[in-house]
Amino acid sequence: MIRVITYGTFDLFHEGHYRLLQRAKQLGDYLIVGVTTEEYDQTRGKLNVVDSLMTRIENIRKTGFADEIIIEESQGQKFRDIKKYQIDIFTVGSDWTGQFDYLNDYCKVVYLDRTKNISSTMLRAQNKRIQRIGIIGSGRIAERFIPEAKLVSGISAQGVFNPHIESAARFASKWEIDYYKSIEEFYSAVDAVYIATPHETHYEYIKSALEHGKHVLCEKPMVLQRAQAEELFSYAKERKLILFEGIKTAYCPGFTRLLGIACSGMIGNIRNVEACFTKLEKSDTRELTDIKYGGSFTELGSYCMLPIIKILGDNFTEVRFDTINGDNGLDLFTKVSFSYPNGLGTVTCGLGVKSEGRLLIAGTEGYIVAEAPWWKTTYFEIHYENPNAVEKYSERFLGDGLRYEIGDFLSMINGSNKSEFKLTRSESVIFADVMERFLSENRS
Ligand code: C2G
């Protein structure tokens, strides 16, 4: 008798899960299915799980494929289960290929092809709230999206579009998703899009996605002109669609907590916010060769403006740009100074100069400091006049952190406005406004 085991969350049970269990059962004679608990999903960073453990177990039971259903509660349990249940084959979908090879010492490991298409007919029939997300662009940023999206329940990465079809095809085959020859075909297969293309193409893609009735999550900087941001937000609102600027820092739990503390009055009235982010890039990258839209500020400025605008607001009276430009005119290092009636904000960013990445928020009674990588905040401190009175805060930040913004995007689509405060439309409009002023000064 061949004994097979598989594990999963099996939330919002769909045909991908069904087909996986069906083929798992065919691998042997006796199938054990491990279902993750809510607590385990939280520790492994799976977000937005909707169905209760009981519902998820019931859905698996109903398929008739499982001979036994067990609960998966912790990391390391798989190895113990394999011994305990005398397992011959461990199987899981091919989206996990390679990640369970360590179990090969104890049993055979089989990765079954993941189901590429979650069909709309099935979703409608089951009244499911799974958003099929399509990616526009297949470069470095898009690469990071799929493994993170996998950890947000209720999103299924469906396909990719890139006018360079070979690039889309390569990406699609790597991530086992579809690619499309035309954008119309792409739009008809998805419910929402993630835009990860060069900055200057965002506006047209966002507009066309909204015209096709799709929700949009767009990489930062969303657009480079104030009027474009205003137009797109009002168009999205009119069409009752979500348009979301993807500045991942805004959605990560540590940063949200830091802002909450900063705004609570614990350090008095805030008078100065300094945010520095530098990242050395090779001279042949898009960031340092795109003469019109490359450079440090367009690349990193969104992260640094975020805490300044969120804390000090949009009523700055003056904004000044100081740059060190390379031979091709692109800014290798930029400082942006915001003056407020009662405060100052300073952005420092660089692609060609390395500095200490730090976020410092100074108030009338103390200051908050978060060291690099503060844009993925996991730790920060509050200091007061008394040097011994330091308060320390730690917060979870899992993986690349994109999952938090994807999770919030999904919640907004599903009608929960809980996360809207994390990055408001008017804040995104201000970022576009400052980018526009910068480009008109720096590139003329
Ligand atoms: N699956 C699939 N096709 C899809 C979606 C999922 O074949 N379109 C497979 C997954 O590869 C997995 C199973 O269905 O084998 C359950 O998927 P999830 O509920 O997303 O669970 P997962 O997070 O993959 O957990 O310990 C848990 C395991 O590591 C897997």
Describe this structure in words.
By secondary structure, the protein is α/β, with parallel strands linked by helices. The chain has an eight-stranded mixed sheet, with helices on one face. β14 and β15 form a beta hairpin. α6 (140-149) crosses α15 and α10 (226-238) runs antiparallel to α16 (425-442). It has 16 helices and 19 strands. The model has no long low-confidence stretch (mean pLDDT 95).
Write a concise keyword list for the protein shown above:
single chain, 444 residues, alpha/beta, eight-stranded mixed beta sheet, 19 strands, globular, binds [cytidine-5'-phosphate] glycerylphosphoric acid ester
- Mean pLDDT over the residues: 95
Could you estimate the helical fraction of the residues in percent? Answer: 25-40%
Instruction: For the largest sheet, list the strands in their spatial order.
Output: 13-14-15-12-16-17-18-19
Ligand set: [cytidine-5'-phosphate] glycerylphosphoric acid ester
| Structural class by secondary-structure content | alpha/beta
Low-confidence stretches: none
Number of strands: 19
- Gyration radius, in Å: 24 Å
Distance between the termini: 75 Å
Overall geometric form: globular
Number of helices: 16
Largest sheet: 8 strands, mixed
In terms of DSSP E residues, the strand content is: 25-35%
Which SSEs are present, and which pair or pack?
Layout: E1 3-8, H1 15-26, E2 30-36, H2 38-43, H3 53-63, E3 68-72, H4 77-84, E4 89-93, E5 108-112, H5 120-125, E6 131-136, H6 140-149, E7 155-161, H7 165-175, E8 178-179, H8 183-189, E9 192-195, H9 202-211, E10 215-219, H10 226-238, E11 243-246, H11 248-251, H12 253-263, E12 270-278, H13 286-289, H14 296-312, E13 318-325, E14 331-340, E15 343-350, E16 358-363, E17 366-371, E18 379-384, E19 391-394, H15 402-413, H16 425-442
Parallel strand pairs: 1-2, 1-4, 2-3, 4-5, 6-7, 6-9, 7-8, 9-10, 10-11, 12-15
Antiparallel strand pairs: 12-16, 13-14, 14-15, 16-17, 17-18, 18-19
Helix pairs in contact: 6-15, 9-10, 10-16, 14-16
Residues 6-11, 16-17, 20, 36, 46, 72, 92-93, 95-96, 114-115, 118 line the site of [cytidine-5'-phosphate] glycerylphosphoric acid ester.
